[in-house]
Amino acid sequence: MRRARTIIGLPIISLAEGVRVGEVKDLVFDPNGRKIAALVVSEASWRHDAEIIPMEKVHSFGRDAVTILALDGLIRARTDRDLNRLLTSDIKLDGLLVMTEGGNYLGILEEIIVGSQGEMIAYEISTSFAEDVQHGKYHLPANEALTVGRDVATFPDGIERLMTHQISELTVPTNPTTAETPVSEVQVTTGGQANGATVH
């Protein structure tokens, strides 16, 4: 597992052709599917459509690079209606207000912990500057989110009992046929070249 921002800035290598495609400019998230939906290679301009790589074309998120299967994984965003809708939506996870459905403030979303296949594992939130300095940021299981909108992400009442400062106390949701894996068995990468990039 790793923090999503550590993916931004990594070079993208095509395995079939052995060439560098570019670098990850941004990430497109699917909050309902709780996963990275695509990588942004170049952003849209008035002359050009954005270029993206759908998650199913990604081979691996490595420490120093992202590998894709082949160059045909790089597409124009408008050629995939669902991905283009996510890319152009007003929902940006960075800085989102996090609250319970009963209206209790939980914090501000600052980071997303993702798994090796791009699955969203946890939301990292800041409750206050003093709390962050004294104890560190909190983590909430991503699969507990009820709604993720333009302004607010909501969680069930009572979610506070699942908030933890230690990522190792969470569990990684796996597919329904397997048991959950303790996060303590997986390393969380903290380095990277994010430099203030905004994730969608």
What structural class do you assign from the helix and strand content? mainly beta
**How many individual β-strands?**
17
Measured as a percent range, the helix fraction is under 10%
Our estimate of the beta-strand percent is: 35-45%
Spatial extent as radius of gyration:
17 Å
Could you say how many structural domains there are in total? 2
Structure explained in plain terms:
The chain is mainly β and 200 residues long. It folds into 2 domains: 2-87, SH3 type barrels; 97-185, no CATH class. It is 7% helix and 36% strand. It is built from 2 helices and 17 strands. It has helices at residues 81-87, 129-135, and strands at 2-3, 11-14, 19-23, 26-30, 35-42, 51-54, 58-61, 66-68, 75-76, 97-100, 105-114, 120-126, 138-141, 147-148, 152-155, 171-172, 181-182. The strands form 4 sheets. Strands 1, 10, 11, 12, 13, 14 and 15 form a 7-stranded mixed beta sheet that branches. Strands 3-2-8-7 form a 4-stranded mixed beta sheet, with no helix packed on it. Strand 16 and strand 17 (181-182) form a beta hairpin. The chain is globular, with a radius of gyration of 17 Å. The two termini are 19 Å apart.
Provide a concise account of the structure shown:
The chain has helices spanning 81-87, 129-135; strands at residues 2-3, 11-14, 19-23, 26-30, 35-42, 51-54, 58-61, 66-68, 75-76, 97-100, 105-114, 120-126, 138-141, 147-148, 152-155, 171-172, 181-182. It is mainly β. It has two domains: 2-87, PRC-barrel domain (SH3 type barrels, Roll); 97-185, no CATH class.
